[in-house]
Amino acid sequence: xxxxxxxxxxxxxxxxxxxxxxxxxxxxxxxxxxxxxxxxxxxxxxxxxxxxxxxxxxxxxxxxxxxxxxxxxxxxxxxxxxxxxxxxxxxxxxxxxxxxxxxxxxxxxxxxxxxxxxxxxxxxxxxxxxxxxxxxxxxxxxxxxxxxxxxxxxxxxxxxxxxxxxxxxxxxxxxxxxxxxxxxxxxxxxxxxx
Length: 194
Prior knowledge:
The protein is 52% helix and 10% strand. The protein contains nine helices and two strands, in the order H-H-H-H-H-E-E-H-H-H-H. It has helices at residues 3-14, 20-30, 49-65, 68-73, 80-89, 128-136, 143-150, 161-170, 172-189, and strands spanning 98-107, 110-119. A two-stranded antiparallel ribbon has the order 1-2. Helix 1 (3-14) runs antiparallel to helix 5 (80-89), helix 5 packs parallel to helix 7 (143-150) and helix 7 (143-150) packs parallel to helix 9. The longest helix is centred in the C-terminal third of the chain and has 18 residues, at 172-189.
């Protein structure tokens, strides 16, 4: 099964709320979600990296939320739909965001023209908040889902640390998505060295 087939299977079986079909149609026809990289040079800096990263985050988030302590001691339970929405769509802001350019690199004493990714932000609306904005144009998010997507970068973003800490404390789904995103980025995908 390809990554796109995995994504479509999870999306179509878990995300059933009103507008989900229109959002998927938008993703398929108006974005480069299935071919875009996840970054310019770090995790997922290759064609299809964004899709792979989204699936990895989904796997990590589902595993994290299944821990007995998470459910039994803390009482946190999230619907399959919420898990799929926040994991699969948290980086929707990265669609139509990267472009490929060429640069000259010397290899074995010979100059070669090689492709690399650059950023072309045509909707400069931040990171997590841009994903919330795009999704909300098609379907309604719960407050937990919106905060999870908005703060999935945790303390690595430019926000005030007190604000991030408060959001992660108030919204356990945000904390969970942040942990899953870091696990996928740092351990499953690693950093591409150049």
